[in-house]
Amino acid sequence: MTTWLDLPEDTLFGIDNLPYGVFSTADDPQRRRLGVAIGPWVLDAGAAARAVGSPDPLLEAASLDPLLAAGRAAWTRVRDALTRWLSEPAFRAVVEPCLVPRADVALHLPFTVGDYVDFYASEHHATNLGRLFRPDSEPLTPNWKHLPIGYHGRSGTVVVSGTPIVRPNGQRKAPTEAVPSFGPSRRLDIEAEVGFVVGAGSELGTAVPMADFAEHVFGVCLVNDWSARDIQGWEYVPLGPFLGKSFATSVSPWVVPLDALAPAARVAPPARDVEPLPYLDDRDAKEPWGLDLALEVRLNGTVISRPPFAGMYWTPAQMLAHMTVNGASVRPGDLYASGTVSGPDRGTEGALIELTWNGERPTELGDGTSRGFLEDGDEVTITATAPGPNGRRLGFGEVTGRVLPARS
Ligand SMILES: O=C(O)/C=C/C(=O)CC(=O)CC(=O)O
Ligand SMILES: [Ca+2]
Ligand SMILES: [Mg+2]
């Protein structure tokens, strides 16, 4: 696919990507509009549809919500149309005026987040956290390779990239302390994750099989599941993460459509060394949903980690199948995240607690300082790319956030 736009060959927002977002401009900050990123521009999608003479209510909305709910056939129709408008020279004269420089827009949370679930799908992350949190037990719990473990998070505190993160207060108790104390978290951490945005819902009482993944999931974003390790370590027994993670979860403003990732970014997941139950068995699947995303984590501008998503043990299709196997329904706008993406090697950990091994081996930053956990004022940015058609790469934009001091 080529475009009439003059884009650098190595742009991460080329014609094959076209991620969706919601933007506003300074001259009309209240007016939110749906756009797709292309090179250094945002195409105002509603305005483009009007300009070519086929106005589309799905593109006039102030969020992705109606498009998400419209389902796979509408997603394909809209993406095909946007691709045509940006590639066929005949459309150039009317569509070009609908491009807004990306540098001039504010980006917003692109959809209303419904239920939010966070999985735990990296074997390396789960093994590391098991060693750190439960040193006297086997690192992987006995259920880990039989089902994708997850927990329900707090969807109301999912925020768009750029939103400042206030250091949480809470109960903290180190294993060596006799009683808990109250105050700002001293072990504030990140979790580099990939998020899956549900479009078409499912019916209560009905499971979504792995094969129907692409009928329900619209696209992919980046997630930072900020985590207060001291609060978490004290509170989580036996029901799992609660206040240690619910204070904020950041998402990238661009949602990359699943269609942009197929087929180039799809890869086989790791070998299943435990036979999965039939509803999770993807060993014979012709097209399993492993995804070859390369993540990068920067702390105050220094790259501290490069987590590889391709090695995740559980795929997003398995996560959706598991999340609904009891008949729980999904709704448009539901978001589920992969869990921390950590690889097997040093420098591929998706969280500071692993990278610095509980703060014992601080990571060096370019300004000569080092970090065990986050300090006030620190800024964390997660980016990712994936293989696209013709050897080009697709970008996911970024999810970024700066830590503000705790409030008293
Ligand atoms: O092993 C634990 O007790 C805790 C694990 C986490 O903090 C991870 C969690 O949020 C899921 C993930 O991101 O993989
Ligand atoms: Ca997490
Ligand atoms: Mg969180």
From TrEMBL:
EC number of this enzyme: 3.7.1.2
Residues that hold substrate according to the record: 120, 134, 232, 236, 340
Keywords: Calcium, Hydrolase, Magnesium, Metal-binding, Phenylalanine catabolism, Tyrosine catabolism
Location of the active site: 125
Range of residues in the leader sequence: none
Recorded superkingdom: Bacteria
Residues binding Mg(2+), per UniProt: 225, 245, 249
Any Pfam family the entry gives: FAA_hydrolase
Pathway(s) of this molecule: Amino-acid degradation; L-phenylalanine degradation; acetoacetate and fumarate from L-phenylalanine: step 6/6
Sites where the protein binds Ca(2+): 118, 191, 193, 225
GO terms for biological process, alphabetical: homogentisate catabolic process; L-phenylalanine catabolic process; L-tyrosine catabolic process
SUPFAM superfamilies to which the protein is assigned, alphabetical: FAH, Fumarylacetoacetate hydrolase, FAH, N-terminal domain
Entry cofactors: Mg(2+); Ca(2+)
InterPro entries linked to this entry: Fumarylacetoacetase, Fumarylacetoacetase-like_C, Fumarylacetoacetase_C_sf, Fumarylacetoacetase_N, Fumarylacetoacetase_N_sf
Record's keyword annotation contains Calcium: yes
Stretches assigned to the Fumarylacetoacetase N-terminal domain: 17-110
Enzyme class: hydrolase
Fumarylacetoacetase-like C-terminal domain segment(s): 117-401
GO MF terms, alphabetically ordered: fumarylacetoacetase activity; metal ion binding
PANTHER family reported for this sequence: FUMARYLACETOACETASE
The protein, known as: fumarylacetoacetase
Gene source species: Streptacidiphilus pinicola
